[in-house]
Specification:
By secondary structure, the chain is an alpha/beta fold. Helix content is 40%, strand content 13%. A 6-stranded mixed beta sheet has the order 7-6-5-8-9-10, with helices on both faces. α19 links the parallel β6 and β7. α20 packs across α21. The chain is globular, with a radius of gyration of 24 Å. The chain binds 2-acetamido-2-deoxy-beta-D-glucopyranose (4 copies). One 2-acetamido-2-deoxy-beta-D-glucopyranose (NAG) binds next to α18. The site of one 2-acetamido-2-deoxy-beta-D-glucopyranose has 3 residues, from loops.
């Protein structure tokens, strides 16, 4: 039932989108800067950008498309084009409603970051800085070894924590993320120097050790929020521990997981997050769009693929294919391919194909697409596939070029990279980041169950995905439907922790909110996910 409602809603919103496309396609890059004025998301006013004056960056309030293209032209932040440009590539409905409280907090946080970083040599400050007189606290994000999806979930969680507790977020310079992402806090850098004594961070006491010693004289605590946690680290998910942690100047954060969900269960965080996020069930999209901004060289790739392969289409469909629960995560598996196709055609995201050619349709193609090219629809559907395995792409491309679709719709299929297997190289991570962003611009997104890559794409896009049931060694007999519509735009917290806590418990009001908005994940029953109270009502897919 819910799915039908959603599909219909998506269709009714098409005319606006077509108008946007119409303008985008006929105007080309020449008018590119004009479209910056679409950039209205959540009233985020980038007041701190180093090269932009307060007065130039006035984002127009949401209004009709027409009023927005006539608004004053805005200037890009050339050190980070994605910061101002990413919203140009989204539908109106994917622009999040403003949150003045979040804007204000973000502005304040940037100011905190700048003033606490000013003039500091981090190595020196950590080793022997004026610890007693320094009013600032810090959170060091130590980049772990997992795939990019996990890293991004962990970084957004660390930022959620830092943001809510007024800690200056600093990141590990030794790995890939610093070169892939823009500096999110204009006017100060979040990158630690290479000379930073990481070994001292890694050998610093754990949360459990600090608790045992009642936090006396603990200047650094090293928290590990990985999928398996001991008693000590689990205590992070007890509210009272945070009053003690507030006194610890340096917190190091190593994780592979998304934990913003769990933070909402803590009374002190709930109150703070409650005031910042109008719905609280869009923490990831809002925060990830602030800090997971691709650096210019990756953004350039996003733009080239977008304009080269995805634009000028009636709708954009993203498909992210990653197998789980089997030996080769990048395998080509015919039943998986069939299931993906079944999901897409049964939800009308892709047309089914016919065997016989239809001469009437063929003879009409010229006039249909010649004219509609100017309406922004050279093809009906542009598909982007993200997978380590190229054969899923080849099959789909072959199918749609060899056979007609029953309704005559034209399908274009593209793929950015096909690594063959997961390697944590910089090159693969850069392609993956470009793909996550491109998928986030989809009108419809199909993701693989249990995939953190998929969570990041859906989260950046504010999209409820079609979750593909392609997990497990042999899906032939699992009795599952090919896919189901996701209940949320938020990532699933795969391993929520439930320690025994002393001290404060949620109030009845808080508990009622949790009961309504925190649900087991559809693709991991033991996981937890933030959802809207009535998904079918609030979110078009
Ligand atoms: C600001 O602009 C100037 C000149 O356009 C440039 O040299 C400088 O690097 C820019 N600063 C930042 C932080 O992008
Ligand atoms: C920062 O401080 C460390 C330790 O005192 C020193 O070795 C390093 O040269 C300093 N870095 C800069 C850029 O001044
Ligand atoms: C061929 O396409 C036209 C126009 O879409 C349609 O009206 C007609 O029924 C189709 N013919 C066959 C045999 O499917
Ligand atoms: C998968 O399961 C089906 C039905 O149980 C079986 O026929 C098939 O051989 C299995 N495939 C593989 C690759 O194990």
């Amino acid at each position: 039932m819910g799915e039908k409602v959603l599909v219909r809603k998506a269709e009714t919103s098409a005319p606006i989108w077509q108008r946007v496309l119409l303008v985008l396609c006929i105007s080309s890059m020449m008018m590119f800067s004009l479209f910056l004025v679409f950039d209205i998301e959540s009233a985020i006013k980038w007041t701190g950008l180093s090269n932009l004056s307060e007065t130039t960056v006035q984002y127009p309030v949401p209004g009709s498309h027409k009023s927005r293209i006539h608004a004053p032209i805005l200037k890009d932040d050339e050190s980070c084009l994605s910061r101002t440009q990413h919203l140009l590539y989204r539908r109106d409905s994917k622009v999040l409603p403003p949150s003045p409280a979040l804007d204000e907090a973000w502005k304040r946080y940037r100011e905190l970051h700048r003033s606490c970083s000013h003039g500091k040599n981090w190595t020196d400050h950590f080793l022997n800085g004026g610890q007693k007189t320094d009013p600032c606290n810090y959170l060091i994000f130590v980049e772990g070894g997992a795939g990019l999806g996990n890293k991004i979930l962990a970084l957004v969680s660390a930022f959620t924590y830092a943001f809510v507790t007024d800690r200056v977020l600093l990141i590990d310079s030794r790995k890939n993320l610093p070169s892939m992402l823009c500096e999110p806090f204009p006017g100060s850098s979040w990158i630690l120097p290479d000379s930073f004594p990481y070994d001292q961070i890694e050998s610093s006491p754990s949360l459990g050790a600090a608790i045992d010693k009642k936090f006396e004289n603990f200047d650094v605590v090293n928290i590990h929020l990985e999928h398996i946690q001991g008693w000590g680290d689990q205590q992070f998910f007890c509210d009272d521990r945070h009053y003690s942690l507030m006194k610890v100047r340096w917190v190091a954060w190593t994780s592979t997981q998304y934990y913003a969900t769990s933070m909402l269960a803590l009374p002190s965080f709930w109150h703070r997050l409650d005031s910042l996020f109008p719905s609280k069930t869009d923490i990831f999209p809002r925060l990830a769009r602030l800090i997971i901004l691709p650096a210019n060289h990756i953004w350039a790739r996003v733009l080239r693929v977008y304009w080269g392969y995805l634009s000028c289409s009636g709708s954009r469909v993203g498909i992210q294919i990653r197998l789980h629960g089997r030996w080769d995560l990048a395998a080509f598996d015919a039943p998986v391919s069939a299931r993906i196709r079944d999901c897409l055609t049964s939800h009308n995201l892709l047309p089914t194909t016919a065997v016989e050619e239809n001469a009437t349709q063929l003879s009409g193609l010229y006039s249909k697409h010649y004219h509609s090219e100017q309406d922004g629809k050279a093809v009906d559907i542009a598909v982007l596939i993200a997978s380590l395995q190229i054969k899923y792409f080849e099959e789909m491309k072959e199918l749609h070029s060899r056979y007609p679709s029953v309704d005559g719709r034209l399908v274009r299929v593209h793929m950015v990279s096909h690594g063959g297997r997961e390697e944590n190289t910089l090159e693969q991570a850069e392609s993956a980041l470009a793909e996550m962003w491109l998928l986030s611009f989809s009108d419809h997104l199909a993701t693989s169950a249990y995939s953190t890559f998929g969570y990041v794409a859906q989260g950046l896009g504010g999209l409820r995905p079609y979750i593909l049931n392609i997990r497990g060694e042999n899906i032939s007999n699992d009795g599952l439907p090919s896919c189901h519509i996701g209940q949320s735009i938020e990532p699933c917290t795969h391993f929520p922790q439930s320690p025994i806590c002393e001290g404060s418990k949620p109030t009845p009001e808080h508990q009622a909110w949790l009961d309504k908005h925190m649900q087991p994940c559809q693709d991991q029953q033991s996981g937890l996910q933030l959802i809207y109270s009535d998904p079918a009502e609030t979110l078009p897919t």
